[in-house]
Design brief:
Protein name: Arginosuccinate synthase-like N-terminal domain-containing protein
CATH architecture: 3-Layer(aba) Sandwich
Helix content: 40-55%
Pfam family, one: Arginosuc_synth
Radius of gyration: 17 Å
Oligomer: single chain
CATH superfamily: HUPs
Largest sheet: 3 strands, parallel
CATH class: Alpha Beta
Number of helices: 3
Structural class: alpha/beta
Number of domains: 1
Keywords: ATP-binding, Ligase, Nucleotide-binding
GO molecular function: argininosuccinate synthase activity; ATP binding
Amino acid sequence: MPVRLRGKLKKVVLAYSGGLDTSVIVPWFKENYGCEVVCYTADVGQVLYCIRHRRVGRLEQKAKASGASQLVVKDLTEEFAKDYIFPCLRAGAIYE
């Protein structure tokens, strides 16, 4: 994004993993564009249900510590399984 956008961007939604790259880009957006950063994470079943809430809590703390105003987590496990996993299995995909 060009520097001329500084002050014109009010809010940015960032696909957030909690890794180094996304955690570093949050303050970069704030410093370079002066905008609010909202982090978004899609839960596609990466973690077991029993630890999911603890992981989301830690992810939210990390996002906010890096300067995000909030973390939005959307549970997409059903859609992911129905629209991607099952069609792959029907097509004979093998995971090794």
